[in-house]
Amino acid sequence: MTLALLAWLPALALCAAHHRDAPPARLPGGTPGLVFMAACVVTGASLVLVPTAGDLVWGPANCFVVAALGRLLWRARRAASVAPGGALALAALGLLLLAARVAAVYPWLRLPGAAPYTGGGLAQTAALALLTVLLGVVGVRELARC
Asked: Which of these, 137, 51, 43, lies nearest to 97 by C-alpha position?
């Protein structure tokens, strides 16, 4: 269920955002293709560097951590030029990844030989939770400022 939600929610959000009256997207990091390529590189590198921790959530969660840190740093440097709503959108994605991460790690918690996997999964869960909360707070402040 969680994986189906992760697979279909971005596609549905993309379809909902594209209509005749929508303004063209302005991405601070470059074209959509460049952003997608960077996400693929981060996801692939995280799976290559730590192959024992590879599950369906490991790569996308690492990509989210990099994107969230980039968004928070971008906002810290250019607070006036940041469009509101981006941080809340990333926070919503973080909640989905957090649910998927917990669902992937939970069955392994009581197994005696899975300590390296669960340790990495729990560290990633903590990073996801912290960044999701930070993005939520920043997003609410951005919307309150408008």
From this structure: 43
